[in-house]
Amino acid sequence: MSNTAQPWWKEIERYQWTVLLMTWLGFLFDLMDSTLYTMVMGPALGDLLGREGTVQNIGWYGGLIFSVFLVGWALGGIVFGVAADYVGRKRTLMLTILIYALFTGLAATAGSWWDLGLYRFLTGLGVGGEWAAGAALLAETWPERARAKGAAILQTSAGMGYFAAAFIYLLVGGYSWRLVFLVGAFPAVLVFIIRRTMRESERWLEERCDGATVRRCDGARVRGCEGASDGARVRRFTLSQIFGRELRRDTIVGSMLAGVANFGFWGVSAWVPALIQNRIAADPSLTQGASASSYVSYAIMILTLGSLPGYFVVGVVADWWGRKAAFALFYAGAALSAPAIFLGPWTIDHTLVLLPLLGFFTLGIYAGFPIYLPELYPTPLRPTGAGFCFNIGRVVSAAGPFLTGVMVLYTGSFEYAISALSLVYLLGPVTLIFARETRGQQLA
Predict the structure, then answer these.
(1) CATH number of 153's domain
(2) What are 25-55's pLDDT values in tens digits?
(3) Which residue range is the domain that position 240 belongs to?
(4) Distances in Å between the alpha carbon of 205 and those of 151, 208, 210, 219, 379?
(5) Is the pTM of this model over 0.85?
């Protein structure tokens, strides 16, 4: 029987499943730590701002901290993406997980809003860098025919990360927002598991050592590779190479696609907890005796449940009809779903029922990036290129939560602010006109 005739999962070796599991857990925990702030923003800023903790001020300072976090995420994705091309995927993965876990835990000690903002910025550094190293490691480890499926499975970790954050908030959110952040330090344990169970990417080692065997160049001693040529060790700065003539267009298009998705998510979906809390604060009878923290947790869980089929649909459409078709479908759906949910004559219970639609599109679209972005670059530039594209847009997308906060400040309505900013998703299909299709392409 030929390889193409058997199911794709039969091609996957045990170690390749291990790589998927470790990177999946890394993604899960980084999205968990990212989401914890969205759930405790109201209580945390209400506590830190004291008498000044009005709805308008919480929206303003909350949006500012969101934006600072995204700038850290963008910077971390670029810096650690470059680092992964020089010191290895595994080392970078371990370091970035340790960073975001440590500073999430330290956020529990915040004494002011700017103190909290600093810890969130440092958390963002680790979160951004972890994505670049993990996506490249999986793409370089899995076989070509199964790569899109593996990347789609990897992205389900994001949904589970949101679910985990909601579960943590459900369990301890009623006690203290500080305890929520403290629990977020748990992912540091994953670093020790990765160190024992994972190897460095063989593609990276072969490229780095330039003819020396992988066995003699094991990542931990890559600087002393026997047989490695000087040309393998002395290269032009990778960040400059992704803007060379052959890759410049891919880099710009990839950055814009990711920038639209990131701007939309942090300007729309990330504000759902605050929207729910604001509705309940205005009319406590809406909860029918349940706690506000319970409703917020359920909202994130429901949003996450909608994202899970979205991740798989992206993988299927990307394989059947192409990467561009998958992106176009989900950008259009994301632009339409938020206004339909938040501007309709719905009760809070109706809104909860409709939230899976928002999650399907605004979260599901992220499955396209670990599929598409690593395919745009050769091995020596893969984390640099993919990390840059996925994260540089966050510098622009940092304006998303800031603008949401500004609009809430002046309109007093989360619903209008979120719905207006969702229209940014329409820029996605326009960008796709200039995108290169990579379906069926071998990794360079």
Answers:
(1) 1.20.1250.20
(2) 998 998 899 889 888 888 899 899 888 877 7
(3) 13-432
(4) 22, 5, 8, 7, 10
(5) no
